[in-house]
Amino acid sequence: MTDSSRQSTRQSWNPEGYAQHARFVPELGDEVLALLAPKAGERILDLGCGDGVLTERIVKRGADVVGIDTSQEMVDAAQARGINARMMDAYQMPFDREFDAVFSNATLHWLLDPQAVLASIKRALKPGGRFVTEFGGHGNVAAICTALIGALQFRGISARGRHPWYFPTADDYRHLLETAGFKVDSIELIPRPTPLPTGMSGWIDTFATPFLHGLEEDLRNSVIDNTQMLLSHSLRDSQGNWTADYVRLRVCAHV
Ligand code: BEZ
Question: In a mutational test of the pocket of ligand 1, which residue from 134, 207, 248 has the highest number of ligand atoms less than 8 Å from its CB?
């Protein structure tokens, strides 16, 4: 994703690391995809298409899909799957009443100016078009954030400006949607404990690097060790398996 004053601290993505540590993200997309219910011939925008694994499933339903992402590496990976993917910033989409639906999975929590994003999405939709999204909602990875912040503060490092995400309540996001001119069909906060295939350190390396930005390697490693120690009581089982405390916000709205 490109830097922007409205975007959280830069997080870089590499398709191989994402496939190894975060394949569950598209794999857990069945329900939001069912909510989108793409139809053959529809023109659909996938905002934050990543490596295109979930986008490909929309294409297979016969829709004409454009994927956008701010990571060139992810766009390249999506194009290698045959997706019509472009590198583009969600705040500056040039689309004007072009899409039957805008879809977005696991992306909008990275964009810290939700009003501007919603205005851009609304502009991209045809009259009557729908917006279907799932992203982190209020309380998402709360234990992980608290442990990271605690481990930083224990070493005298301020966590100010390091928390990279926007995790709204259903009421707050409904209000933003309605203010932006959407009609909300459904909006739900869904606790979804999520097993981590490569453990907590794989998850932190993949998603939480903004918390560790600028730290020397030794310090970074000790913050990660301390975070894992704090979390082990609540998020690791007796076999050593880790589960993250995910809470999703799932939304269907139309213009
Ligand atoms: C994600 O991008 O899927 C994600 C980011 C932060 C917390 C949880 C999930």
Answer: 207
